Amino acid sequence: MYSCEFFFWDDFKVESRNGVIYAGDSEGVIFEESNKKSAYVACPAFVNYHTHLGDSVAKDPPFSGIEIVMPKGYKFRVLKEYEDNIVQAMEKAIKHMILSGVLKAFDFREGGISGIKALRSADKAGICVALGRPEENELEELLKVSDGFGISSVRDVGFEKASEMREFAKKRKKLFFVHAGEVDSKDVDQAVELRPDAIVHMNMAEIKQIKRAMDERIKIVSCIRSNMFFDVARIENYRFLKEYEGWRIGTDNVMLSSPSMLEEMHFASYVTRDVENVFRAATCEGMKYGVVIFHKRLNFSNSNNALATLVRRAGMEDIECVIPGEVKIE
Ligand SMILES: [Zn+2]
After folding, report:
1. Which of 33, 44, 56, 183 is 20 to 30 A (C-alpha) from 253?
2. 274 within some domain
């Protein structure tokens, strides 16, 4: 039982309520309002909307001087080289996410069916949504073991093939995510035309293209630290996107940035100069998955604004516990 100030997103604004969180039984997590003085700060679990957990096997390449994600580039070389260690590396990345309050992550998994199976065996807690990338002739089979498709770019697979995959996913009620607008805006129009469940990036999209995606109610996922790594960040796009209710954030390649949403929120809040919308993008679906309880002994001490501290400063060192289970408010 934790007496806390509980922040969550409801009806287009951040709500803050004092109360008590009860946890641990099969009913899930119960938050009950009360006048109890809060000893803790709490929020819904974080949802990391975009990861590539597999490349956690070879972290922290240099900022420049090598091709990272090109065919035959660094990423593909090291994934091949360290193939046997991938499951163990993903296990550690998933552990890092859970310890930092992430209880749901949408992962783009390369390597077809065997790639999905590797992720499932690493994900003992079952927090990952596995979005696969089919190898030759395995569309149908891949969808049986995965939660949908996560494709690199319409530019890489071609519009026709991408449309076929999109239809396949829709018929079987699976997800379809695509990268677009990362290095330029040329692959954006076709990506929007596919009406995917989410488009990852759009940092290089033109504002009118972003508006079209918004009109189609397509979720848009920004991965700002990753864009900074590749030197393709465009601040005005994030500041435009942050007001959109379908805006989400993710941490992208574990090779480049930690999968902690606390760290992504810190960075995103400074870039967008916004606390509330960044909080929303990171937690608005989190009530389904659990709560994160922060103690006030370190970063929250002497804070004048607990929400700003949570978004801009809180670290794993401030987490008292992470409690899984659907959150009910009584
Ligand atoms: Zn990505």
Report:
1. 44
2. no
Output the CA 200–ligand 1 centroid distance in Å: 7
CA–CA separation, 81 vs 57, rounded Å?
10
Q: Over the stretch 269-303, which tens digit does the pLDDT of each residue have?
A: 999 999 999 999 999 999 999 999 999 999 999 99
139 and 113 within one domain: yes
**Encoding tokens for residue 119?**
């992720």
Instruction: Give the distance (Å) from ligand 1 centre to CA of residue 294.
Output: 29
Distance 109 CA to ligand 1 centre (A): 10
Q: Would you state the torsion angle of the CA atoms of residues 326, 45, 3, 40, taken in this order, to the nearest 10 degrees?
A: 170
* Confidence (pLDDT) at 80: 80
Q: In this predicted structure, what is the pLDDT of residue 279?
A: 98
- Give the pLDDT score at 312: 98
Same domain, 127 and 188: yes
Using the mean position of ligand 1's atoms as its centre, give its distance from the Cα of residue 329 in Å.
35
Structure tokens at 159: 């519009």
Residues in the chain, pLDDT under 50: none
